[in-house]
Specification:
Layout lengths: L2 E3 L1 H7 L3 E5 L3 H5 L7 E2 L5 H14 L1 E5 L4 H12 L5 E3 L2 H7 L17 H22 L5 H17 L3 H6 L9 H12 L2
Parallel strand pairs: 1-5, 2-3, 2-4, 4-5
Helix pairs in contact: 3-9, 6-7
């Protein structure tokens, strides 16, 4: 069974782990654990052979923003017989514990973090539902109610369907060249 480790436990052993960050490329670029390699959750299946090789040589640590996606990745890896650990609370807990995040310099405009994208999308739908409900027909306010219900469910289940959908947009997807470069770097690690 794969373990969940606190930021303090990871700090003590960070040098022994190969860190896999399963967030979107935009989230990863916004700050990640030192030495982390970005393999978004939706590309995990493609990376399984490489991750199996790496796990045979050492310990894997899977991280995300809050711990939910890394738990999902950890479960998927366990199902494939690949042992790994997951960082409890993700990069948010890591940074809150006073640990440093690596933020590489970039010449391109920074991508928005997933939580910011979700807030923009949800807020836009709520406003749109209210506006159309006032101008056209009150039934359109059900759009706002649907988004509100989705947000409540998201909080209770600690999952986010909207983030999953937004993660599939080209803006949030990993360029296959970047993913292949990451996998090559992992094989040579």
């Amino acid at each position: 069974m794969n373990a969940t480790l606190t930021a303090g436990a990871v700090r003590e052993r960070l040098h022994t782990f190969v860190v896999i960050d399963v967030r979107t490329p935009g989230e990863y670029a916004g700050g990640h654990l030192p030495g982390a390699h970005n393999i978004p959750l939706d590309a995990l299946e493609h990376a399984l052979p490489t991750l199996r090789e790496v796990a045979d040589r050492g310990d894997l640590l899977v991280v995300c923003a809050s711990g939910t996606r890394s738990q999902n990745a950890s479960a998927a890896l366990a199902g494939e017989g690949i042992p790994c650990a997951s960082l409890e609370g993700g990069t948010t807990a890591w940074e809150s514990a006073g640990e440093e995040l690596h933020r590489p310099a970039s010449t391109e405009a920074p991508k928005w973090a997933m939580d910011r994208q979700v807030r923009l999308t949800a807020g836009s739908f709520v406003l749109l539902g209210l506006l159309i409900g006032l101008l056209i027909h009150p039934a359109f306010q059900l759009i706002s109610a649907g988004v509100a219900a989705g947000l409540v469910y998201s909080a209770l289940s600690n999952s986010c369907a909207m983030a999953t959908l937004l993660g599939k947009l080209p803006y949030n997807r990993t360029d296959r060249t970047n993913l292949n470069d990451t996998l090559t770097a992992l094989r040579n690690h």
